[in-house]
DNA sequence: AAAAACTGCAACCGCCAGATA
DNA sequence: CTATCTGGCGGTTGCAGTTTT
């Protein structure tokens, strides 16, 4: 049985695409859409194999491609995702709308990898090269070495405990967990949850986080200084009338002020919001479906609630908050 | 100025899984 | 069940432009 290969076919062009070829392919796809790639060259009048056409479209001609430098936000995300997923570029690219797996792979190999090595961090393990292993992060190792056949969701479930109140980071599991994982867990989980939140249990040691994101969580007492969103009565949260109110269950503390509710307009999505004393930010929420969410991550998925004293408390409210759906979490 | 070394990136290659005949 | 086709993926190559020697 002979393997089908572009290279085995005769008279097919290889190498860089000419503007004329691009134009032919673009015209064809614009008119007929993406379908059977193997028939594209013939119909489009190209001396290329279908595979080559597909690649050219995906990596260069697609209209929704984002060009230019990677933003700092994108770089951070790639680093975090790579730590979780390893070289699964397609999965990483799925979280960066407008970027291709090839682009991210190239960027990693030519830039991020070197950047990490300069910082003395092993780009494969994301750990300090001089690390003598006495603070092993078994969970991250699990991610790095896990088979690609394990679904991402399952991997995350391995390390995080999800329940219907949100994401629990117990002292045993979270103390050595990179915040990138937490963040990613949230990203992944929040696709299906209308409102997702994190509860820090007392006793976790934020200092043992090994990424520079650790500072976000560096605070001595989470329970006393964070609004206790995990226990607020979601039944009483008001998702109607285009407003999002949390007005119960917040615990006061010495580091927070007297403000006891927050609300923001949901018309057209969350607007950036400041919450007195505790910087709350909901940026660009405009989600209506999982597809949209997955396709437009960067623009619509930074919904962080930043609480004072350099701690971060992440909430990921989802598209279903945008009016029609009012599912809320229930206490066990 | 020229050659060598380096860099970034587009494209190719080979493997794999799923679909289909 | 087997053979074949197809698309998707990650690793790798090779080229063009840039920098260094």
TrEMBL record:
Keywords: DNA-binding, Nucleus, Repeat, Transcription, Transcription regulation. Pfam families: Myb_DNA-binding (PF00249). It comes from the Eukaryota. One of its GO terms (molecular function) is transcription cis-regulatory region binding. One of its GO terms (cellular component) is nucleus. Residues 9-61, 62-112 form the Myb-like domain. It is found in: Nucleus. InterPro entries: Homeodomain-like_sf (IPR009057), Myb_dom (IPR017930), Plant_SW-associated_TFs (IPR051953), SANT/Myb (IPR001005). The keyword RNA-binding does not apply. Residues 9-65, 66-116 form the HTH myb-type domain. PANTHER family: MYB DOMAIN PROTEIN 55 (PTHR47997), TRANSCRIPTION FACTOR MYB86-LIKE (PTHR47997:SF34). This is Uncharacterized protein. It comes from Deinandra increscens subsp. villosa.
